[in-house]
Write the structure tokens for this entry.
Amino acid sequence: MKRWTFIVGCLAVLVGVCGLACQAAEGQQGGTLRILVFGAHPDDCEIRCGGVAVLWSARGDLVKFVSTTNGDIGHWGMAGGPLAVRRTNEVQAAAAVLGITTEVLDIHDGEILPTLENRKMFTRLIREWEADIVIGHRPNDYHPDHRYTGILMQDSAYMVTVPFFCPDIPPLKKNPVFLYSADGFQRPNPFQADIVVSIDSVIEKKLDALVLIESQFIEGGANGSAETSPKTVDERDAKKAQVRESFKRRFAATANQWREKLVELYGQDAGSNVQYAEAFEICEYGRRPSKEEILKLFPIQP
């Protein structure tokens, strides 16, 4: 009897050790990664992360975009509740193309602030999603909503693991990898790409999603006008084609700017031939992954 007890005990220990090893390798929720992206408005996540989101989704990972404001002043000809509803519907349609989940918070466009209440809200959102990766704006950006979204993400980076901060939601078992999405602002410090992902295989799907956000990219958003907005079906179709080409140039410029990093991650041949890319900087407030972990976390195939 003692022998069987000993054997059973050894098997239990072995199973436990294997389970812990697998859990450590698989992230917060097992083999499926969970990615949460914060964007200040209903279009920011789609522009900055739409390509890698498709790639994550295609391999079975779970991606959620969160717009931290409802975009209710982001149009030249309409505002308020009707615009907020329209912009929510646009990003929901884009999410269906990308294969992700999306949420728009009920905060007025132009009015998000880095308050304690909002810090708790961000912390709860990250915990509820059980995120392995969190992405957001850098806090030095031209738009106050972008800046404060970045600050709120940063301020939540450590707190998501603290048990008695927002104790109504269980803390995460380990700190996620926090990342900034790319921008071109230089002061006080320029964006530095630590991770660059080829989106060549999904560029058309990303563009399909972006042109569904018509209030912004077809009609011009807050800085458009009745004169420049398309008035006929043909004009609208022409504008969509123009928007697609403009975004292609933007994502091609990202690949060219960070070509050395693409070569480092993908290898000389593959990295040299990437046409379109999305880039991310690692936030030092979260977990800092090694190159080996980056290759596992991101849909990068050298």
